[in-house]
Amino acid sequence: MRRRNGRPGLMGTMARTAVIAGTATAVSGSVANKRQVRAGQEAELAAARQAQGDAAEQASIDAAVQRQLAEREAAVPAQAAPPATPADDPTARLQQLADMKARGLLTDEEFTAMKAKLLGL
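Below the sequence we write its predicted structure tokens.
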């Protein structure tokens, strides 16, 4: 086998081609990885911006609701305490017990016990 001056042989050409192909594959993989990382970062950034936008929107909604509630409370006049119900009035409650006894709904013992309880005896 004779070697030509200045030119590599078949094995040299194959070796050079393998080195070039390997380098191209490595560079291609590196570029693809960088693109994936960049795409992931951009997705995270977009999600963070969306979350901030959602939080700001929710805060403005909450503030609007609070303003509406405050306006309603200011528009409704304060109501006075309701008048005493018959259940709060001992005399009226005693009258109810007497009526229940007269209708036969309470026995004498039940009437006496409830009356004592009502009067605090």
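Residues 10-75 form the longest helix (66 residues).
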